Every structure is written in C-alpha cells, then in structure tokens.
Amino acid sequence: MAGKHGPLIVDLLADVTRYLRGLGYAEGTIERFGHHWHSFADYARRKQARRFSPALAEGFVRTLPSARGRPHWHRSHTVRRSMRILVEFAACGRHHPRYVVPHQPLPAIFETAITDAIEFAESKCDWAKSTLTCRNAWIRRFARHAIAHRGIRAWKDIDATDLPAYLGSLQIGRGSRSAAFSCIKAMFRVLFIQGVLPTPLHEKTPPFARSYEVALSTIWHPAETEAILAAVDRDTAVGKRNYAVLLLAMRLGLRACDIRNLRLDDLRWERSRIEIVQQKTRSPLALPLLPEIGEAIIDYLRNGRPPGQFREVFLRHIAPCGPLRKHDFGSVLQSCCRRAGLPKRRRAGMSSLRHTLATRMLEDGVGVEAIAGVLGHARIETTRRYICVDIPLLRQAALDPEKEIAHA
Question: Which helix or strand (DSSP H or E) is residue 387 part of?
C-alpha cells in the first residue's frame, strides 16, 4: 500500500482547493485541476491507497495515454501541473508558480567558496542583484561540469583550459557563450582575490573570440509608436497596466527591469518626479513624471491594479498575483505590434523603445550629455556606444549607386 505516512488524499484535495482560491486562482482553472485530481483519486482507490505520496502521483501520470507515442513527460501540461501542485503542497503547504529543475549539490569545498564569493561581491564590489544571480548561476554550472567531466576535487585543480572547454560544450548561441564567459571570468577574479584560486585564471584564460556583427536595435517611427499605444485595450486591467508600462519606456526610456521594480514610494507626486535606484548600475536616477504618464498610472492604480500589500506599482494579473517576473514583459510589445498591424521585426523588444527615445533626442539636437542623463548612463562613452547611428546624417551621406557607377 503506497503512501502510509502522507496526508489523506481527500483532505489534501480539499486543502489545496482552498489554498488556490485564497491565492486568487480563477474558478475555471481550479475546476480543470479538480477534474484531474478526481481522476487521480479514482486511481488511488483502485490501488487501495488512502494517503498521498509522490510515487503514487507519478504512477498515475504514467497510466495516462501518451500523445502520438511520446513518453510520459509529454502528457497534457495541465495534468502535469495539477499533479505537481499536489506534490509541492503535500511537502511544504505551498507550491511554486514555476518549476525549477533541481541540481545536484556541489561538494562543500566548492559550495562554501562560491557562497563566500557572492557575499564578498555584493558587499565589496557592489554588484547588482541581477548580476549576482547570473554570475552565481554560471560559476555553479561551470563547477558541476568540471567535476563531472574532469573529476576535479579542489579549486586548485582548475586550469586555464577548463573554461574554453566548458564553453565549447554548451549548446547555446555565441552571444550567450560570450555572456557566460564574462560571468565566469568575473567570478574567477573574485575567487582569486579571496585566495581560493591559487592562480589568476581571469588573466590566464584565453579570451573568448566573439565575432561582432552589426546588429542595430529597431528604431520605431513616431507614427508606429503611436499606433502601438493605440492598439492597447485600455478598458481592461491588463491593458491599463501595459499602457502605463509602454509610456514609461517610450517617453522616459526606462529599462524593463526598472519598470518591473518601480515601487509606489518611487512616485514623487508632490515633485512630479520618478526617483529610482537603477537595478543595472545601482546609481540613482530622477526623471519627470509627465502628466500623460501620471494619468495612466493613476488610472491603473484606481481601476486596474489587483488588491494586495505589494509595494511594486505593476503586478501580475494571473494568479498568484504579485510583482512581475523577469520575462512577464516579453510579449507586451509584440502583441501590441500585431494588433496595430505592424510587421514583425528582429531586435524589437522593450529595449528598442529606449533606443528609439535616444535616437529621437539626438535627431532633435539634444546633446549627448543630456541623453546620458535621461538614460541613466554614468559615462558618456556608454551613451556614445549606445547611440551609434545618427539616421539623418547617414541619409545625407548616402551614396547614389548609379552616380558612383557612372564615375567609376
């Protein structure tokens, strides 16, 4: 008999249903989960099991017919999600909105060193939270690969050839491998400073030869940006949120991460300003709270924002409600472009609105220093690299192929 020490299935299903309702899940979603849970309960009765166990849930999933002969993990997404909720709720009384693949723990000598290095980088190097998260993840992946494929037992066993070998094993694009190289190399530097690495691998590791191609971000025409705004359905709560988000990106050039982390305390209504600490650079930035943006935010706060104790301005509207996650803005601009009838373009994410604002300011004769102040760049060189094209000047310098051929 399976699951002798787990909760009673009847009680578990009642408790998890109340839990999801408390999180604000739609009744239709709970009903879909309940349909699969009812089937699971029937399966448990046939197995003469009254108590829940992860093995019993796995056995139930395996009994379901596969789609086109594919293995059991290709079952219906809703079925797998419903059973995952049961497993997580039975284990800890809650569930994670997204499934995170568990990794094998690192040996203590590696785990302790990485944890200390991250704490050192946060306190002494002032790395941003997103930078810490990214570099922490990459150094751990590298360490697991080195342990599994080279059999290293200590940090001193790592040499300058291990990082290029690891990058060559990754099935990702060259740009992503370049980012991984930078993250791991930065961690090598910290580990060397702390005395964990006996040699400066950050200096001895061969450079990553990335071939840079001209890849300019999309620059939107003023008529296109207005069409994008007009395509937002402002009668819905999500539409009110997306309209305010797009205005912040278009009119002020805020990064998506700063919009996502914008808090109610950052809105200085008495000064008509938005005052934030930028997530990427950790430097303060103050921008005018334009009337158009203020009205859109007020409309969302009064008529669209879900109730709750969260201090973030913009929240998720799919249960469980809460602050926006990293990838929640991914489809906002693309969906508005489709509704506006604009063609699909490459490199047309939220950052393209920031590039567009900078380009328009440059065309209007605004100085690079002023543009750097709006974008929140600490160095003018960063802004010059950011705005690498002056479109009107390029048009003036364009050559007529027919005339060039005639003079040849």
Answer: none
